């Protein structure tokens, strides 16, 4: 099961897992994108807004009684508001999608993950959930909370046959993340990556997901932080040649 599979890291992950032989159930809100993904990869699909209880219930039903892998990817950032000018609706939306959506899907699929006898939960968090930065308060808060949920879940599932992993990407040049964050402003989104020598790609993160998922099941990668060489921290980025 991969949530947020209609674009970016989610779509790349669904493609990679299907190529590796997984039976993938891809979930997202946009049906047309899911249909394209199904035609390309042969995966099954389910329309799902992770903040909608009815959609999550339908997702769990589609997943069935046994699930070996859940990739919690649905989420995202909205704006770069400073706290003094915070748009609370944006903050609320980020919390509902990144945190409550992740909790809802995980809760719904936990019985099937345990029943599989070898379940794995991989949550795509962010380095924004490790270090705060100016203009990132809303997204920082949501991602810090998502990391805390993952850490609590790992403790609560101790003794059960379920691994819990947090993959925290840094700068990823995906097709929609920055565009959504800046309300469709393509020029502003482009500047995020301007001058960066080889930012991460969504396929890089899909590679990390596949690596974690395909390790022997007794091996748990608790946390995996992944940044491009050009990025030392969320607020420190080298813009200029590195590799010549």
Description:
The structure is a single chain. The chain is α/β, with parallel strands linked by helices and 244 residues long. Helices cover 44% and strands 15% of the residues. The protein has eight helices and nine strands. The strands form three sheets. A four-stranded parallel sheet has the order 4-5-6-7, sandwiched between helices. Helix 1 links the parallel strand 1 (2-3) and strand 2. It is globular and about 50 Å long. It starts with a strand and ends in a 7-residue tail after the last strand. The mean pLDDT is 96.
Query: What is the helix fraction of residues, given as a range?
Result: 40-55%
Low-confidence stretches: none
Number of separate helices: 8
Q: What is the total tally of β strands?
A: 9
Mean pLDDT over the full residue set: 96
Shape designation: globular
Strand ordering within the main sheet: 4-5-6-7
Radius of gyration: 17 Å
Helix and strand content put the structural class at alpha/beta
Largest sheet features: 4 strands, parallel
Strand content: 15-25%
Report the order of strands and helices: EHEHEHEHEHEHHHEEE
Could you give the distance between the termini? 40 Å
Attribute tags:
alpha/beta; 244 residues; three-stranded parallel sheet; globular; four-stranded parallel sheet
Secondary structure topology:
Layout: E1 2-3, H1 8-19, E2 25-28, H2 31-41, E3 44-47, H3 53-63, E4 69-72, H4 88-115, E5 119-124, H5 137-156, E6 162-169, H6 177-181, H7 186-193, H8 202-214, E7 223-226, E8 231-233, E9 236-237
Parallel strand pairs: 1-2, 2-3, 4-5, 5-6, 6-7
Antiparallel strand pairs: 8-9
Helix pairs in contact: 1-8, 3-4, 4-5
């Amino acid at each position: 099961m991969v949530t947020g599979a209609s674009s970016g890291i989610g779509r790349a992950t669904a493609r990679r897992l299907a190529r590796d032989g997984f039976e993938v159930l891809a979930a997202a809100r946009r049906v047309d994108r899911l249909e394209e993904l199904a035609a390309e990869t042969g995966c099954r699909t389910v329309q799902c807004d992770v903040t909608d209880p009815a959609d999550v219930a339908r997702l769990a039903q589609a997943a069935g009684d046994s699930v070996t892998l859940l990739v919690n990817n649905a989420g995202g950032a909205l704006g770069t508001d400073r706290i003094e000018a915070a748009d609370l609706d944006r903050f609320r939306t980020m919390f509902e999608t990144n945190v409550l959506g992740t909790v809802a899907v995980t809760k719904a699929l936990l019985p099937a993950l345990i029943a599989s006898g070898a379940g794995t939960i991989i949550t795509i968090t962010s380095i924004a959930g490790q270090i705060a930065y100016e203009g990132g308060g809303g997204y920082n808060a949501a991602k810090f909370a998502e990391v805390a949920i993952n850490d609590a879940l790992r403790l609560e599932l101790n003794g059960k046959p379920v691994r819990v992993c947090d993959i925290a990407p840094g700068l990823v040049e995906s097709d929609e993340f920055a565009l959504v964050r800046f309300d469709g402003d393509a020029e502003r989104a482009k500047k995020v990556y301007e001058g960066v020598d080889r930012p991460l790609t969504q396929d890089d993160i899909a590679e990390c997901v596949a690596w974690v998922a395909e390790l022997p099941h007794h091996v748990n990668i608790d946390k995996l932080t992944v940044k491009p060489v050009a990025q030392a921290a969320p607020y420190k980025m080298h813009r200029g040649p590195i590799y010549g």
